[in-house]
Amino acid sequence: MINFDVQKELGCYNDEEAAGPIEMHHIVYRSHGGVDHFYSKIALPAGFHKGNRGPHLNKETDKALKKEMQKELFNAFSEFPTYDIDSIIMILQPENKRSREKIRRQMEKTKNIAGEYKAEDIVRTLMGGKLH
Questions:
Q1: Which of 35, 45, 84, 86 has the fewest CB atoms within 10 Å, i.e. is most exposed?
Q2: Per residue in 17-55, pLDDT tens?
Q3: Strands (E), the chain
Q4: What are the residue ranges spanned by the domains of the chain?
């Protein structure tokens, strides 16, 4: 999950928008290829999440969250030059079997060499097909 510092930088807890329960926001929308895994969501106050400064109505906030997720993914996939599908799934910690299978299907469509994927190709796939 994206760290608390990013939430503070975005001003999630500064005013009345911070009121209400916490909601989970999918940083890469599921309709754009997002999958439920450790790096794909952030907890936001409900008022901020759907408010004027939140990611659904503010492109700058949405882009900032995507950039942070991308940075976290590049960091997660920085130890080795390539990764196989089992390593990718282990790093991502998908929430359930359905998410694991969706990751497998997405990666099958991704450029690879003998089942090994480069970090940039992994991140691009997880970011919905483009880097930010």
A1: 86
A2: 666 788 999 999 877 878 889 999 898 988 888 889 899
A3: 22-26, 41-45, 82-83, 117-118
A4: 4-126
